[in-house]
Amino acid sequence: MNKLDKNKIRELLPHREPMLLIDELIDIVDLKSATAIVNVKKDSFFVQGHFPDQPVMPGVLIVESFGQAAAALTAHGLDKSTYENKLVFLMGIEKARFRNPVIPDCKLVLKIEAIRSHGRVWKYKGVAFVNNVRMADAMWSATIVDKK
Q1: pLDDT (tens digit, 9 = 90+) per residue, 15-67?
Q2: Which residues pair with 88 in a beta bridge?
Q3: d(CA 23, CA 68)
Q4: Which of 96, 144, 147 is nearest to 120 (CA)?
Q5: If 0-12 CB within 10 Å is exposed, 13-18 middle and 19+ buried, where does residue 40 land?
Q6: CA separation for the pair 14, 42 (Å, rounded)
Q7: Residues 131, 23: Cα–Cα separation, whole Å
Q8: What angle (nearest 5°) sits at the alpha carbon of residue 66, between those of residues 63 and 71?
């Protein structure tokens, strides 16, 4: 399957609304790369307070979206027994750059790539676009841990 809708993403991730940010995962190359779609809406939970007169998606939520996309990509490519009863935790963020503000209503497109894995630790990179304009990019690492 080369595409995951929000229902399939819910099966892979523990996140739920309002913190489940990614709406689709497409162009999936198992354990290597994918494109995530985040529909940034005028009624998104962060809009009211960030900022009332000029809403902008917070940079930390862009990074969270990168992380969710990477977690879904990884879980989708692994055998279910490997990620069942596990959580993916962000370990570090490197070289995060926010180049343009992400303003609702838009489609935020995240191109992500798994750079390497070593045991339960994975490293990723990603670039975020709106209408083919680069909005942000980052590198980050995450680990898979047992649920407690």
Answers
A1: 999 999 999 999 999 999 999 999 999 999 998 888 888 999 999 999 999 99
A2: 144
A3: 10
A4: 144
A5: buried
A6: 25
A7: 17
A8: 125
Neighbours of 59 (CB within 10 A): 16
What is residue 1's predicted lDDT score, i.e. its pLDDT?
Answer: 59
**Under 8 Å between Cβ of 148 and 104:** no
In the chain, alpha helices (H): 6-12, 59-77, 80-83
Taking the C-alpha atoms of residue 104 and residue 75, their distance in angstroms, rounded to an integer, is: 29
Residue range 3-146 forms a domain whose CATH class is alpha beta
> Among 120, 25, 125, 23, which Cα is nearest to 72's?
25
| Tens-place pLDDT, residues 99-125 | 999 999 999 999 999 999 998 899 999
Task: Show which residues are catalytic.
Answer: 50
The Cα–Cα gap between 100 and 88 comes to 28
Q: How do the domains of the chain map onto residue ranges? A: 3-146
> Is the full-model pTM beyond 0.90?
yes
* List of residues 6+ apart from 65 with CB closer than 8 A: 21, 22, 36, 38, 108, 110, 128
